[in-house]
Design goal:
alpha+beta; 4-stranded antiparallel β-sheet; 241 residues; 9 helices; 4 strands
Length: 241
């Protein structure tokens, strides 16, 4: 006949009672496991930053922009003086000018001069805007080639001025800023992608550490054993290094 052991029953009930509480963890446990897994944080942060840099270099297509601006001068074609009536007319003409600039008859010639296959391909690179409250119009071309971007803006301005003078006898358009060659990439921030990659590595490491803490149900100290077993610890074996 098996011997009855009252402490065994007590120990079992205590374990069942406290099993749900044993899923918690203290700040000491978090700090301790972070120290042990510090190498993981470093490796994943470096790896994430490296992947972010490689992604920027090999997967992101570099794009370059060039911008030129024109101005509808409010001058009388005969006297050369500035008149309020002309200023008011120019303000109303700005939207019309923006619309005319990207029409097919102008874009076709721009495409031909720029070596592009069609008017649509030239138009797709352009962004024509107006500075609010002014008669200044900005023409920006964005392509994968800085030289091509500059060429498209130059040809757009030249063709537009020529067409306006020939067809509508509009001669009060002046170039404020000629387009410049700019080798700076737009829409690509390599340093930001590296930092985001490193941050992602740290985040993955943090999730892994949190997983270890939540799933670790071991009793690591004498105090924990006494609290969860509801029994005094009579003997403690020291940890040998």
């Amino acid at each position: 006949m098996a011997e009855f052991n009252p402490t065994s029953k007590r120990r079992t009930s205590a374990l069942k009672k406290n099993s749900s509480d044993n899923t918690g963890f203290e700040l000491y446990d978090l700090i301790n496991i972070i120290k042990k897994k510090l190498w993981l944080f470093v490796i994943l942060a470096v790896l994430g930053g490296l992947l972010g840099g490689l992604y920027t270099k090999f997967m992101v297509t570099p794009r370059y922009a060039s911008t030129g601006t024109i101005f509808l001068t409010p001058k009388n074609s005969e006297t050369g003086s500035v008149e309020y009536a002309n200023m008011s007319i120019n303000s109303r003409l700005v939207n019309t000018v923006i619309s005319l600039m990207t029409k097919d008859n102008i874009m076709s010639e721009v495409a031909e001069r720029s070596g592009l296959p069609s008017a649509a391909s030239a138009k797709s690179t352009l962004n024509v805007t107006n500075e609010q409250g002014t008669e200044i119009i900005s023409i920006t071309s964005t392509t994968t080639d800085p030289v091509l971007s500059k060429t498209i803006v130059e040809n757009t301005i030249d063709v537009f001025i020529e067409k306006m003078q020939e067809n509508l006898n509009v001669k009060n358009i002046e170039i404020v800023d000629a387009p410049k060659l700019d080798y700076r990439q737009i829409g690509v921030n390599r340093n930001r992608n590296i930092q985001m990659g490193a941050l992602a590595g740290v985040g993955i490491s943090s999730l892994y550490v949190l997983f270890l803490l939540v799933t670790d149900n071991r009793l690591k100290t004498k105090e924990e054993a006494e609290r969860y077993m509801e029994l005094p610890v009579l003997i403690e074996i020291p940890k040998w290094k």
